[in-house]
Protein backbone atom coordinates (compact mmCIF):
# COMPACT_ATOMS: atom_id res chain seq x y z
CA UNK A 1 0.00 0.00 0.00
CA UNK A 2 1.15 3.54 -0.83
CA UNK A 3 0.15 6.50 1.33
CA UNK A 4 -0.51 9.73 -0.59
CA UNK A 5 -0.54 13.10 1.19
CA UNK A 6 -1.94 16.17 -0.55
CA UNK A 7 -4.12 19.11 0.49
CA UNK A 8 -6.44 18.48 -2.49
CA UNK A 9 -8.81 15.53 -2.20
CA UNK A 10 -9.16 15.48 -5.98
CA UNK A 11 -5.44 14.73 -6.26
CA UNK A 12 -5.43 11.91 -3.70
CA UNK A 13 -8.48 10.30 -5.32
CA UNK A 14 -6.81 10.65 -8.73
CA UNK A 15 -3.69 8.85 -7.52
CA UNK A 16 -5.87 6.15 -6.02
CA UNK A 17 -7.48 5.47 -9.40
CA UNK A 18 -4.16 5.56 -11.29
CA UNK A 19 -2.36 3.22 -8.90
CA UNK A 20 -5.36 0.87 -8.82
CA UNK A 21 -4.87 0.27 -12.55
CA UNK A 22 -1.41 -1.04 -11.68
CA UNK A 23 -2.77 -3.26 -8.91
CA UNK A 24 -1.53 -1.00 -6.09
CA UNK A 25 -3.71 0.10 -3.17
CA UNK A 26 -3.39 3.67 -1.87
CA UNK A 27 -4.68 5.60 1.12
CA UNK A 28 -4.99 9.39 0.86
CA UNK A 29 -4.57 11.97 3.63
CA UNK A 30 -4.99 15.70 4.01
CA UNK A 31 -1.84 17.20 5.60
CA UNK A 32 -3.36 17.92 9.02
CA UNK A 33 -4.83 14.44 9.27
CA UNK A 34 -1.60 12.82 8.13
CA UNK A 35 0.52 14.50 10.79
CA UNK A 36 -1.70 13.11 13.54
CA UNK A 37 -2.01 9.70 11.90
CA UNK A 38 1.67 9.00 11.31
CA UNK A 39 2.48 9.90 14.91
CA UNK A 40 -0.18 7.70 16.50
CA UNK A 41 -0.97 4.86 14.07
CA UNK A 42 -0.42 1.33 15.32
CA UNK A 43 2.83 -0.26 14.25
CA UNK A 44 0.94 -3.07 12.52
CA UNK A 45 -0.68 -0.50 10.21
CA UNK A 46 2.51 1.42 9.46
CA UNK A 47 4.17 -1.88 8.53
CA UNK A 48 1.59 -2.29 5.75
CA UNK A 49 2.87 0.86 3.99
CA UNK A 50 5.31 0.33 1.11
CA UNK A 51 6.00 4.00 0.29
CA UNK A 52 4.87 7.56 0.98
CA UNK A 53 4.06 10.05 -1.78
CA UNK A 54 4.04 13.65 -0.54
CA UNK A 55 2.29 16.14 -2.81
CA UNK A 56 1.52 19.84 -2.42
CA UNK A 57 0.84 20.82 1.18
CA UNK A 58 2.01 23.29 3.77
CA UNK A 59 4.94 22.31 5.99
CA UNK A 60 5.57 19.11 4.05
CA UNK A 61 9.26 19.36 4.82
CA UNK A 62 8.33 18.24 8.34
CA UNK A 63 6.80 14.97 7.17
CA UNK A 64 9.95 12.95 6.27
CA UNK A 65 11.25 13.22 9.82
CA UNK A 66 7.90 12.12 11.24
CA UNK A 67 7.81 9.17 8.83
CA UNK A 68 11.39 8.14 9.64
CA UNK A 69 10.49 8.04 13.32
CA UNK A 70 8.09 5.19 12.51
CA UNK A 71 9.51 3.33 9.48
CA UNK A 72 12.17 3.37 6.74
CA UNK A 73 10.17 2.88 3.52
CA UNK A 74 10.75 5.16 0.49
CA UNK A 75 9.49 8.76 0.73
CA UNK A 76 8.96 10.59 -2.58
CA UNK A 77 7.96 14.24 -2.94
CA UNK A 78 6.01 15.52 -5.95
CA UNK A 79 6.66 19.07 -7.19
CA UNK A 80 4.17 20.95 -9.32
CA UNK A 81 6.73 23.54 -10.48
CA UNK A 82 10.43 23.43 -11.11
CA UNK A 83 12.42 25.05 -8.32
CA UNK A 84 15.98 24.06 -7.49
CA UNK A 85 15.79 25.71 -4.08
CA UNK A 86 12.58 23.88 -3.22
CA UNK A 87 13.97 20.56 -4.44
CA UNK A 88 17.13 20.95 -2.35
CA UNK A 89 15.04 21.79 0.71
CA UNK A 90 13.05 18.58 0.27
CA UNK A 91 16.18 16.46 -0.03
CA UNK A 92 17.60 18.16 3.03
CA UNK A 93 14.36 17.39 4.87
CA UNK A 94 14.95 13.70 4.23
CA UNK A 95 12.94 12.61 1.17
CA UNK A 96 14.47 9.86 -0.96
CA UNK A 97 13.48 11.36 -4.31
CA UNK A 98 11.70 14.33 -5.88
CA UNK A 99 9.62 14.03 -9.05
CA UNK A 100 7.93 16.73 -11.07
CA UNK A 101 4.48 16.55 -12.63
CA UNK A 102 3.37 15.28 -15.05
CA UNK A 103 4.62 11.74 -14.56
CA UNK A 104 3.18 8.26 -14.96
CA UNK A 105 2.52 6.12 -11.90
CA UNK A 106 4.82 3.50 -13.43
CA UNK A 107 7.64 5.99 -13.14
CA UNK A 108 6.82 6.45 -9.45
CA UNK A 109 6.81 2.69 -8.95
CA UNK A 110 10.14 2.43 -10.78
CA UNK A 111 11.61 5.09 -8.51
CA UNK A 112 10.29 3.29 -5.43
CA UNK A 113 11.96 0.09 -6.62
CA UNK A 114 15.20 1.96 -7.33
CA UNK A 115 15.20 3.27 -3.76
CA UNK A 116 14.61 -0.25 -2.47
CA UNK A 117 17.57 -1.47 -4.52
CA UNK A 118 19.76 1.12 -2.83
CA UNK A 119 18.52 -0.25 0.48
CA UNK A 120 19.23 -3.77 -0.76
CA UNK A 121 15.62 -4.74 -1.51
CA UNK A 122 14.12 -4.51 -4.98
CA UNK A 123 15.03 -4.71 -8.67
CA UNK A 124 15.84 -8.34 -9.23
CA UNK A 125 13.24 -9.29 -6.68
CA UNK A 126 13.46 -11.21 -3.44
CA UNK A 127 14.09 -14.94 -3.51
CA UNK A 128 13.33 -17.29 -0.66
CA UNK A 129 13.86 -20.94 -1.44
CA UNK A 130 12.40 -21.67 -4.89
CA UNK A 131 10.15 -18.58 -4.93
CA UNK A 132 11.16 -15.17 -6.23
CA UNK A 133 8.76 -12.23 -5.90
CA UNK A 134 8.91 -8.74 -7.38
CA UNK A 135 7.37 -5.48 -6.25
CA UNK A 136 6.73 -3.94 -9.67
CA UNK A 137 3.64 -5.87 -10.75
CA UNK A 138 5.40 -8.88 -12.27
CA UNK A 139 4.20 -12.37 -11.44
CA UNK A 140 6.38 -14.35 -9.04
CA UNK A 141 8.59 -17.17 -10.20
CA UNK A 142 9.01 -20.70 -8.88
CA UNK A 143 12.30 -22.32 -9.81
CA UNK A 144 12.78 -19.62 -12.44
CA UNK A 145 9.41 -20.18 -14.13
CA UNK A 146 6.65 -17.56 -14.06
CA UNK A 147 3.90 -18.46 -11.59
CA UNK A 148 0.78 -16.54 -12.60
CA UNK A 149 -1.45 -15.38 -9.77
CA UNK A 150 -4.45 -13.05 -9.47
CA UNK A 151 -3.48 -9.60 -8.23
CA UNK A 152 -4.63 -10.03 -4.60
CA UNK A 153 -2.97 -13.41 -4.18
CA UNK A 154 0.24 -12.08 -5.70
CA UNK A 155 0.25 -9.13 -3.31
CA UNK A 156 -0.32 -11.41 -0.32
CA UNK A 157 2.60 -13.62 -1.35
CA UNK A 158 4.82 -10.55 -1.79
CA UNK A 159 3.78 -9.22 1.61
CA UNK A 160 4.39 -12.53 3.38
CA UNK A 161 7.84 -12.84 1.85
CA UNK A 162 8.71 -9.20 2.54
CA UNK A 163 7.87 -9.90 6.20
CA UNK A 164 9.39 -13.38 6.41
CA UNK A 165 10.31 -14.28 9.94
CA UNK A 166 7.30 -12.37 11.30
CA UNK A 167 3.83 -13.73 11.89
CA UNK A 168 1.17 -11.51 10.31
CA UNK A 169 -2.42 -11.42 11.43
CA UNK A 170 -5.43 -11.10 9.17
CA UNK A 171 -5.84 -7.37 9.88
CA UNK A 172 -2.25 -6.60 8.87
CA UNK A 173 -2.57 -8.51 5.61
CA UNK A 174 -5.91 -6.86 4.88
CA UNK A 175 -4.43 -3.38 5.44
CA UNK A 176 -1.52 -4.13 3.12
CA UNK A 177 -3.72 -5.46 0.33
CA UNK A 178 -6.88 -3.36 0.56
CA UNK A 179 -5.77 -0.23 2.41
CA UNK A 180 -6.12 0.84 5.99
CA UNK A 181 -9.49 2.54 5.65
CA UNK A 182 -11.29 0.33 3.15
CA UNK A 183 -14.65 -0.38 4.81
CA UNK A 184 -16.30 -1.81 1.71
CA UNK A 185 -14.55 -5.18 2.00
CA UNK A 186 -14.68 -7.59 4.94
CA UNK A 187 -11.42 -8.76 6.50
CA UNK A 188 -12.62 -12.34 6.10
CA UNK A 189 -11.86 -12.08 2.37
CA UNK A 190 -8.18 -12.49 3.32
CA UNK A 191 -8.86 -16.05 4.43
CA UNK A 192 -10.36 -16.85 1.02
CA UNK A 193 -7.39 -15.37 -0.85
CA UNK A 194 -4.87 -17.20 1.33
CA UNK A 195 -6.76 -20.50 0.99
CA UNK A 196 -6.57 -20.24 -2.81
CA UNK A 197 -2.92 -19.18 -2.70
CA UNK A 198 -1.98 -22.09 -0.42
CA UNK A 199 -3.66 -24.59 -2.72
CA UNK A 200 -1.76 -23.29 -5.76
CA UNK A 201 1.56 -23.25 -3.91
CA UNK A 202 0.97 -26.76 -2.58
CA UNK A 203 0.29 -28.05 -6.08
CA UNK A 204 3.45 -26.41 -7.41
CA UNK A 205 5.83 -27.10 -4.52
CA UNK A 206 4.46 -30.36 -3.17
CA UNK A 207 3.98 -28.84 0.28
CA UNK A 208 2.23 -25.89 1.92
CA UNK A 209 4.79 -23.14 2.70
CA UNK A 210 2.30 -20.92 4.57
CA UNK A 211 2.07 -21.70 8.26
CA UNK A 212 -1.01 -20.49 10.12
CA UNK A 213 -1.77 -20.48 13.81
CA UNK A 214 -5.14 -19.59 15.27
CA UNK A 215 -5.18 -16.11 16.84
CA UNK A 216 -1.52 -15.54 15.85
CA UNK A 217 -1.68 -15.29 12.07
CA UNK A 218 0.36 -16.39 9.07
CA UNK A 219 4.01 -16.69 8.14
CA UNK A 220 5.84 -18.19 5.20
CA UNK A 221 8.45 -20.90 5.58
CA UNK A 222 10.59 -21.53 2.51
CA UNK A 223 14.10 -21.89 3.93
TrEMBL record:
Matches recorded under SUPFAM superfamilies: C-terminal effector domain of the bipartite response regulators (SSF46894), CheY-like (SSF52172)
Molecular-function annotations in GO: phosphorelay response regulator activity; transcription cis-regulatory region binding
One biological process term in Gene Ontology: regulation of DNA-templated transcription
Keyword Transcription regulation found: yes
DNA-binding interval(s): 123-222
Keywords of the record: DNA-binding, Transcription, Transcription regulation
Protein name, per record: Two-component system response regulator
Organism field: Phyllobacterium brassicacearum
Upper classification of the organism: Bacteria, Pseudomonadati, Pseudomonadota, Alphaproteobacteria, Hyphomicrobiales
Amino acid sequence: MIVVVDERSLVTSGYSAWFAREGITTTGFAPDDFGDWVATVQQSDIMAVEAFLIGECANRSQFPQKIRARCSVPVIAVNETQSLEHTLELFQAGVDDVVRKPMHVREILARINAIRRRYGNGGTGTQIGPIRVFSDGRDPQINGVDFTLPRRERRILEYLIANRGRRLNKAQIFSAIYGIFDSDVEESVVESHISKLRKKLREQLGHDPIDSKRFLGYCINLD
